[in-house]
């Protein structure tokens, strides 16, 4: 079965516990709201019966329930803030971990490259090599005549052709030629000039 075996951490359990507590407080608030509504109904009934003392008692119980409701609201607010802070701290932890991993990878890449000094040294060596090549070309260019330059270019072309390999020539038929029999071949008919002119006319 199990493809997803995600590990539940202590932080996950703590967040879950806080959310369970929050849900319990919400349930408690709903119960208190129902009770305060009942106490209001009881107070109305007692007033209707003319029992002022019992009406006052019901309203006092209602007031007490409302004070509990206010305290529950404060606890709920603190609990939700705490839950949000813990979740945000976990996100920050993941971000910091990601940044640390990225920094470590960058350090490894720089170590493989040999550091900035090594890169600068390579760039300097490359620039020196290009400058040397240019200097040699200019020096040789001034000492070689035009004829020598043409010979050098011809030699370069010959070397390129040699490196490319032998060129394929077209294949020649290997059949033996048949002997011709002059009598077997049809002879072109020769029309005399006057007859030809008469035909054309």
TrEMBL record:
In which compartments does the protein localize? Endosome membrane
- According to the record, the signal peptide region is none
Which keywords belong to this entry? Endosome, Membrane, Protein transport, Transport
Q: Which GO terms describe its cellular component?
A: ESCRT III complex; multivesicular body
User: Per the UniProt entry, what is one GO biological process?
Assistant: late endosome to vacuole transport via multivesicular body sorting pathway
Database matches in InterPro entries: Snf7_fam
Annotated membrane-spanning segments are none
Q: Please tell me whether the keyword Membrane is annotated for this protein.
A: yes
Quick one: where's region Disordered? 160-201
Pfam families attached to this UniProt entry: Snf7 (PF03357)
Query: What is the similarity comment for this entry?
Result: Belongs to the SNF7 family.
Protein name (record): Snf7 family
